[in-house]
Amino acid sequence: MVSTDSPGTVTRLLRAWSDGDQTALERLTPLVEAELRRLARGYMGRERKDHTLQPTALVNEAFIRLTDARQIRWEDRAHFLGISARLMRRVLVDHARAHGYRKRGGGVEHVTLDEALAPFPEPDVDVLALDRALEEMAAVDGRKSRVIELRFFGGLSVEETAQVLHVSSDTVKRDWRLAKLWLLRELKGQRR
Amino acid sequence: MIDEERRRRIEEVCVGALARNNDDRDAFVAASCGDDASLRQQVEELLAHAQTAERFLSMPVAAVAAHVLGQGDSMPIVGRQLGSYTMGSRLGAGGMGEVYRARDTKLGRDVAIKILPHAFTNDPERLTRFAREARMLATVNHPHIGAIYALEDIDGIRALVLELVEGETLSEAVAKGPIPVREALTIARQIASALDAAHEKGIVHRDLKPANVKIGAGGLVKVLDFGLAKAVAAEPVTPDVTLAGTGTRDGVVLGTAAYMSPEQARGLAVDKRTDIWAFGCVLYEMLTGRRAFAGAGITDTLASVLEREPDWSALPPALDRRITRLIRRCLEKPLSRRLRDIGDAVAELDDIKEVSEEPAGGHVAIARRSIVAALLIVGIVAGIGAWISLRGPSQPALQEVRLEINAPSTRDLLSIAASSDGQWVAAAADASPDSRLWVRELRSEAPRFLQGTEGASLPFWSPDGRSLAFFADNKLKRIDLEGGAAQALADAPNPQGGSWGADGTILYGPTQIMPIMRVPATGGTPQAVTRITAGQLGHLFPHMLPDGVHFLYTVSGAPEMRGVYVASLTGSGTKRIVAGATAATWSSSGYLLFAVNGALFAQKFDPNRLELVGERGRVADSVATDRTAVAGGPDGMAASASMGGPIVYRARPPQDDHQLIWFDRSGKEVTRLATPSVAGLAPTLSPDGRRVAVSRLVEGNRDIWVLDLDRNVFSRFTFDPAVEMSPFWTPDGRWIFFASNRRGVLSIYRKSVAGGEEEPLLVTDQNINTANISPDGRMMFFSRADPKTLRDLWAKRLDSTDAPFPILRSPYQDLNGEFAPNGKWFAYQSSESGRYEVSLRQFGSSGPTIQISSEGGTQPRWRHDGRELFYVALDRQLMAVPVNFSPDAQAVKVGTPSRLFQTRIGGPNTLQGEYLVSPDGQRFLLDAPIRDVTPPITVILNWHTP
Predict the structure, then answer these.
(1) Cβ within 8 Å, pair B61-A152
(2) B342: DSSP letter
(3) How many helices (H) and strands (E) does chain B have?
(4) pLDDT for residue B382 is more than 50
């Protein structure tokens, strides 16, 4: 899991990624995932099973530990939140994929989070299918795809999402509703 | 693919349709699409998911990421091939990373591999320095020193390849008791020789302790981790550090406190004589089975190192005097008097060994030390990293950084306090089994829960950071972090915060309706230091200013009186410094922090003129000001600052995560009412069972709202900008009674369900709340605040103009009275036992009190036929108790409480109802957080003044 082609610090990778180097993200993800998992295990050990974290806190804390927060110049909080959400998506999708491979010997269809979500009734979310559908959506309507990414994967509020995307809260709400309808239609089509 | 314009049109129609209810939706779509059948099909395909979409993705996956990611197995290092090393089992973990056994396939030997933590390897500068140190250490080749083979960088993993030394550590050996003298001296001789060789090369171990000494096969001793303590230091150790208490500076990696030399403990420059000191400690410990310098905690241990002498009488009586002298010379506190060269010890030991005889006695004679205690200390020390020095004079202005740290689950948001040196935070957790205070060093990872603080709230630190004061069991208490029981100092039945001055004076607010009191931290008679004047309700949240004479506090009451005030312990006048603000605290750099409308502000304070100067600046948009996530108006501020620098605060939790949910008796969710209740309170059911009235906080304004259960739609019922809470539906179904503070104090109002005025029903000079009406509609129950007797239960006849009269006036909190369906008895919650319990009494009689709950309880509610009473236990279990009244209702039999299910409502400080019971007692409508989100604690470093 921890295998980067060339060694690099999280700080450097983040910077490279911000500068448009997509391969930096590939190398960043496993590093962040390892730290997230380590933190996650800590929380799991301490908390009741139904305890949930403040959504942005986990990834936030992972960054704090992985980097010297003072050495990274986040343009602003919105910038940080946007990057966190993207990374969280990558980490969770990778995780779902790896989990699926391990469990099913290669089959990766329909890896859901329902087990983890058990205390909170929620329709099954097939993370990998959702990820694919989001990519398709991004080709047509990038902003809606980002809204889903920020809100669902990043745990951002409507206001935070609006800040990241430089649009109004009403626009975010509208995108959010519509995007979910599109996604549900897409996902349903795929399952059948 | 659909073209852009087409897509926009589809969306437009969808949005329009979603804005209408189900009934009108079809017609709207039909009208909008006209004869464009394909448009209509597209729209309908999307709208088919409208209902599912409401809940779809509603739980951010980030919120459960810990569960998802934590489920996987640990990072699969074991069994992996890292370069030419095959990783074997994990041997242990230290402050410097995890250690694994491994096979070097190239050289065909077994090695130990230490995987360096990311936080370490991500700092290029540190890594470079480490590599340099490691290279130097690798040149030391000595039979008693564990060798460093290599520093590898494999697949992004930094690993230190070390000699694998099998065997027991000296700390394991000594845990069994003293080591026989001859054996101890043999071990000591080998340690000394290892130190001698390293010192020859100018290398100091810096962290010599029994855990770093291994005794292998045939008694061969190896000293491990030579020089690593320095190598991992974040910056070259400089001699300008002073260490007060447990504080330390970035770069000083602490050894285990017990083996630290006095100069190390002071943070001074360190040379080989530090190793000589540690050697003395180790030798002493081998011979006595106990530590030369011990203490209950790290601070105490360090104090022992700096001030005390070891117990020399613990050494074996027949011990050669030369050994005692050697140890004494190693443990000389002034450097000038300490043994200068470990080579001298080698020579001395060689001499002694030839003549010494092993004394009788032995290995098991002395009681075993507590390994647990030792581990605890090691753990704390490992946690002492180094906090970034915030005020280095030579440093340029630092970038402001805001960090979030996750905190144990709680609804007690106001309980948060930074220590005066800014390195620690204390807060309360309220989730069973850990409903206790915890402390955490900001730089460390895990909170430490404090025993003896069960149910505690509103902690604040002593100026030296060694003790915490807090409130629990209706008392102000203090506890020393290094151990010992909590000590009660004064009564504080409804605590409103406190502050601990440098001279040992504690200021605190004992209740919502009393002045600020003072009491010595060592105990004594409490005295009031403020006086409540006309229009004021109570004085809350004192905060001592640095001069130790003046203090801040918050005044509640009439709007024109509210705000933050400053007063003096000498009694010389008091004045308001910020109107409309709550709970001020002092930060370094002379600013006051205070909350206004849920935002956190800072403004410069002139300590001479005792007033704010300059502009106020916003520190945070949102700070929690409610005592709990669901309570009413602002009653404090979840923020704390310290002289040391960081500001810590908790943001207001999201308000949209409450929902009214029907549960059955087994706790299974029956119906989730789709509209979130937005932190509602005190739901009450209409007698026909079709509507629910609840107090909701919407856009900052708390009002009564009515939910139509058939249509699942909320409508606003009261419209005043003041706080409206605690609705109660009259038995005839025609009125809703509620409490409102529109006249300053909470009073009882009513409004017709059919519409009309919100009319005052009962206004007194005190806060009255939680009206409850007898089944015949003639009698009203309510709780009344009283400066002396706290909350009491009062009643008022509704069919006459007679004055209200007290039902229960005890010096405890008596509230949430609820008439039994027969109208002759009532259930209520009282704090008489030190925590809330639910009890039963006959109305209008001085008969006995029958306690219902056994392990604490709040919010009694009746089944409609009066044969069962429900309440919420302190651990948030919903409980049911069978109740059997005699036919004339003169006697009652009460069964044993049984648990129905775990809820997320209730808790030790509950003042309001949060659920209702269906008439048949089979279903429960809970106004609960749909998830348990505890806002993280935000830490602001290098705060830039506004």
Answers:
(1) yes
(2) H
(3) 16, 59
(4) no
**Helix axis angle, B342-355 to B181-200, nearest 10°:** 150
Percent of chain B at pLDDT > 90 equals: 27
Report the CATH architecture of B658-929: 6 Propeller (2.120)
pLDDT greater than 50 at residue B631: no
What is the token pair recorded at B768?
């009255």
Q: Give tens-digit pLDDT for B471-481.
A: 988 889 999 98
Question: Could you tell me if B529 and B552 are in contact, meaning their C-beta atoms sit under 8 angstroms apart?
Answer: no
Predicted pLDDT at B5: 85
Distance CA B883, CA B873 (A): 17
Number of CB pairs < 8 Å for A and B? 220
Tell me whether residues A152 and B57 touch, CB distance under 8 A. yes
Calpha distance B211→B193 (Å, rounded): 18
* Active-site entry in B36, B110, B153, B207: B207
Query: Which pLDDT score, from 0 to 100, does residue A60 have?
Result: 63
d(CA B273, CA B341) in angstroms, rounded, equals 7
If one compares B287 and B813, the residue with the highest pLDDT of the two is: B287
The CATH fold of domain B168-383: Transferase(Phosphotransferase); domain 1 (1.10.510)
CA distances from A45 to A51, B307, B438, B856 (A): 11, 39, 16, 27
* Nearest residue of chain A to residue B47 (CA atoms): A181
What is the value of pTM for the model shown? 0.43
Q: At which residue do the structure tokens 């039999």 appear?
A: B893
List the structure tokens of B228.
């690593």
CATH 3.40.50.2300 is the classification of domain B407-653: no
B207 is catalytic: yes
Is residue B113's pLDDT more than 90? no
| CA B820/CA B411 separation, integer angstroms | 30
Question: Which residues does chain A have within 8 Å of residue B68's beta carbon, measured at their own beta carbons?
Answer: 40, 92, 95, 113, 116
Return the number of other C-beta atoms located less than 10 Å from residue A141's C-beta.
18
Tens digits of per-residue pLDDT, A19-35? Answer: 777 777 777 777 776 76
Whose CA is closest to B753, among B834, B842, B686?
Answer: B686
Q: Which long-range contacts (C-beta less than 8 Å, at least 24 apart) are formed by B820-824?
A: B820/B862, B820/B866, B820/B883, B820/B885, B821/B775, B821/B862, B821/B863, B821/B864, B821/B865, B821/B866, B822/B775, B822/B866, B822/B885, B822/B889, B823/B774, B823/B775, B823/B776, B823/B779, B824/B885, B824/B889
- Coil, helix or strand at residue B127: helix
B869-922 residue pLDDT tens = 999 998 788 999 999 999 988 889 999 999 999 887 887 767 788 899 999 999
CA angle A93, A99, A103 (to 5 degrees): 150
Closest residue to A2, CB basis, from B157, B402, B936: B157
Chain A: nearest CA to B338, how far in angstroms?
40
Split at pLDDT 50, 70, 90, the class of B795 is very high
Q: Which CATH class is domain B84-163?
A: alpha beta
Residue B409 to residue A67, Cβ atoms within 8 A:
no
Q: What pLDDT was estimated at residue B408?
A: 79
Could you report the per-residue pLDDT of B710-722, keeping only the tens digit for each?
888 888 999 988 8
Whether A11 contacts chain B with CB within 8 A = yes
For chain B, domain boundaries: 1-48, 84-163, 168-383, 407-653, 658-929
Strands B401-405 and B937-941: antiparallel
Task: Say if B407-653 and B658-929 have the same CATH topology.
Answer: yes
Segments making up each domain of chain A, as ranges: 10-191
Which residue matches tokens 């950084």? B401
| Cα-based angle B148, B146, B132 (whole degrees, multiple of 5) | 30
Tens of pLDDT, residue by residue over B633-672, are: 446 788 887 655 678 888 877 655 677 889 999 988 888 8
